[in-house]
Structure prediction request, 385 residues.
Amino acid sequence: MSQEDKQAAADAVDPDRAVVQAPINVRSASLALLAVLACVAALHLAKAVFIPLMLSLLLTYALAPVVNWLERLKLPCWLGAAIVLITLGVATGWTAYRLSDSAAELLDALPAAAQKLRVAARSSNTTSGAGSPLDTVQEAAVQIERAAEESAVKSAAKRGVTRVTIERPPFNVRDYLWSGTVGLMAAAGQLTLVVFLTYFALSSGDTFRRKLVKMTGPSLTKKKVTVHVLDDITQQIQRYLLVQIFTSAIVGVATGLAFWALGLENAAVWGIVAAVTNLVPYVGSIVTMGAAGLVAFLQFNSLHLTLAVAGTSLAIHLVVGNLLTPWLTSKTSRMNPVAVFVGVIFWGWLWGVWGLLLGIPIMMVVKAVCDRVEDLQPVGELLGA
Prediction:
């Protein structure tokens, strides 16, 4: 009996059953899975290379309209790119210099606020006459560990075994200074790499665009598809960057004004901190809320005002992040919110904080490519809204 006859007989027995005959090529699926895993491993191992490349790509898309406007004013691309990058660097440095004193006071206040909060928690436990559950568990763990050590010493003494004690090396501040200096030098090197990559990309104009179109082959159809893909990537990333800048500015201004109205010191610095951390999805709002709450507790020494400051920060991020940003992002990128959330989690796991920042633009690039390639259109449909 053939396969069609077996299917007809099964349908006759159970006519309500719907079966889709989809042959699965196990070999192709296995090869595709291995290729995906190899790409993920390569992205993780070579993140020191890919992260600066993606950052420079975002900066290139963000600054390209300004460079193109200067080119229309008869300025060469290399000169326009240099002017834009130097202006951006000078503005950033001047802003950092003007706010350096307030930022230093803010950073100095964070440890003191944490210490004061810890002392207040201990004093409240002492006043109530009982420790917190965490302190009780910690004390029980210490007692168990001490009893286990005494039992091990006694049993070792009975067997005549020599006990060996491993002493930890003394604290050496030079080791920590050296590690911090190495990390700072690595960050400065990556920042320099991003700046030079962005400059070369801006000064080259549309050279790489023409080369990519030429590499697709002599077919006019493939060239048109490549042009459409590049246009989609450019439009979606530029719109996404505009949305992020707009929403971050709203968060920064609203946070600064709200903290100023509540009487929190260095409200302008807090506004800038909130605007910058808003670029990191889901994590930036929590960091700002916790740090602002600590500083407010140190300044006001009042639980109500501390909750007011932390709650105001969280409310601003929730309103902008859950209402305004998704609405604007859906209008500009047509991305599925669930796919965006899963993508942000994946890239955050892969690249850490940089993955949280770069995850959504990478998903936009993937969707733009999948929408134009016939074999990958199901993936684009899955990512779409």
